[in-house]
Design goal:
Elements: E1 4-9, H1 14-23, E2 29-36, H2 45-48, H3 59-62, E3 67-68, E4 77-80, H4 84-96, E5 100-103, H5 128-136, E6 141-144, H6 148-164, E7 166-175, H7 187-190, H8 201-213, E8 216-217, E9 222-223, E10 228-235, E11 242-250, H9 256-265, H10 269-272, E12 283-286, H11 294-297, E13 308-315, E14 321-327, H12 331-347, H13 353-360
The structure holds NADP nicotinamide-adenine-dinucleotide phosphate.
Residues 10-16, 36-37, 39-40, 69, 81-84, 86-87, 104-105, 147-148, 178-179, 181-182, 329-330, 333-334 line the site of NADP nicotinamide-adenine-dinucleotide phosphate (NAP).
């Protein structure tokens, strides 16, 4: 069975390189196009891209010629790792031209007819795709994944929200340097330091993303969840892995054991379907007193970098309980999140003939 052709927009950047890395050897997808700015277009990937990930640049992409970010390349899905200054318009052009756009950028996350997705959390929001295509007259469509810190916060909260109803959340993030792209924050600013400000991050976590992700699709649109979030976002001198200190209040206060049980029982659709990039389990509860830690635990689980690790669950004197959550920011928080979204689209029949062929070949559970 031939693979689905995919392209990467912003392929030379921090998230773009993760896409390239994660797509190597993928059972369903193969890279047929790499796109970046006009500075890189026309160059070989090996010459235009300063490879910053562990291990060598994959052989299969070294000689590929980078194209400009314009519709035309021979692929069905485009993964977008473009900066928000340019992503909005370019992604729309691709969707209008019939491509399936899986985006990391923030531009379309809050559009009423665009799914903001975590496959484990809100796969039913895929129904927005038909509404989007109708509204905009596009033959393609856009899906988005949340910001890297929201991804792991909401992943940890989802099984608790389903059982006990999350009412209030107080979260303090300790976010890795790679979250700012490359070269990102200057070493003179971040070494021996913590920067208590990340532009736009607290607004995304407080007002929009958790509420949309945990909201209900009512047949017409998403009714946002009624959850109050207070967020303090900080940049800390770790390379990868966002650590978050979370306090939470519920509609119905559970016992500590019930919370642990909710995490342990969690087996959402992405895991049931055995999507190739879905970690089994999605949430790892670590009982050790001093875990999770970014350096030790960001790659935990069956698909490295894709799980959310939680620990240090204990009573909270202000809200009901508090715990720590950790997850990789450029893997599950960015490229891996989009990749899993694309796998869900294929498995749920949103890739037309390609979906049907994969289902026939029994590659989908
Ligand atoms: P980055 O390292 O700065 O990479 C930007 C990429 O976009 C490069 O490939 C660059 O190509 C290309 N580009 C820049 N300007 C362009 C233009 N005018 N037209 C076409 N291509 C252009 O950024 P990043 O950290 O990978 O972030 C990419 C996106 O993912 C952003 O929207 C960011 O907010 C989001 N995101 C990042 C993280 C993270 O942990 N880093 C997490 C979640 C979401 P050239 O090399 O040719 O300049």
């Amino acid at each position: 069975m031939s693979k689905i052709k995919v392209g990467v927009l912003g392929a030379t950047g921090a998230v773009g390189q993760r896409f390239v890395q994660m797509l190597q050897g993928h059972p369903w997808f193969e890279i047929t196009a790499l796109m970046a700015s006009e500075r890189s277009a026309g160059k070989r990937y090996v010459d235009a891209c300063r490879w910053n990930l562990r291990g060598d640049m994959p052989e299969a992409v070294r000689e590929m010629i980078i194209e400009e970010c314009e519709p035309g390349p021979d692929c069905q899905i485009v993964f977008s790792a473009l900066p928000s200054e340019t992503a909005g318009e370019i992604e729309e052009e691709f969707a209008a031209a019939g491509y399936v756009v899986c985006s990391n950028a923030r531009n379309h996350r809050y559009d009423d007819d665009v799914p903001l997705l975590i496959p484990e959390v809100n796969p039913e929001h895929l129904a927005l795709i038909d509404i989007q295509k109708r509204n905009r007259g596009w033959s393609g469509y856009i899906t988005t994944n949340p910001n890297c810190s929201t991804t792991h916060l909401v992943s940890a909260l989802h099984p608790l929200h389903v059982r006990f109803g999350v009412k209030k959340v107080f979260v303090v993030t300790m976010q890795a340097i790679s979250g700012a792209g490359y070269p990102g924050v200057s070493s003179m600013d971040i070494l021996d330091n913590v920067i208590p400000y990340i532009s736009g991050e607290e607004e995304k976590m407080e007002h929009k993303e958790p509420q949309k992700l945990l909201g209900v699709f009512d047949g017409v649109g998403v009714r946002y969840a009624d959850i109050v979030v207070s967020a303090h976002c900080n940049r800390v001198p770790t390379r990868n892995g966002h650590l978050e200190a979370v306090s939470v209040e519920f509609e119905e206060k559970p016992t500590q054991e019930q919370i642990v049980q909710a995490w342990r029982d969690y087996r959402p659709l992405a895991q049931q379907l055995k999507l190739p990039s879905a970690p089994q389990p999605a949430i790892i509860y670590d009982e050790r007193i001093d875990r999770p830690q970014p350096r030790l635990d960001r790659m935990a689980g069956t698909v490295p970098g894709m799980a959310t690790v939680v620990g240090r669950l204990r009573p909270d004197p202000l809200l009901h309980y508090k715990f720590m959550a950790l997850g990789h920011n450029t893997i599950r928080g960015a490229a891996g999140g989009s990749l899993l979204n694309a796998e869900l689209l294929v498995a749920q029949g949103y890739l037309g003939q390609a979906s049907a062929l994969l289902a026939e070949s029994a590659m989908i559970a």
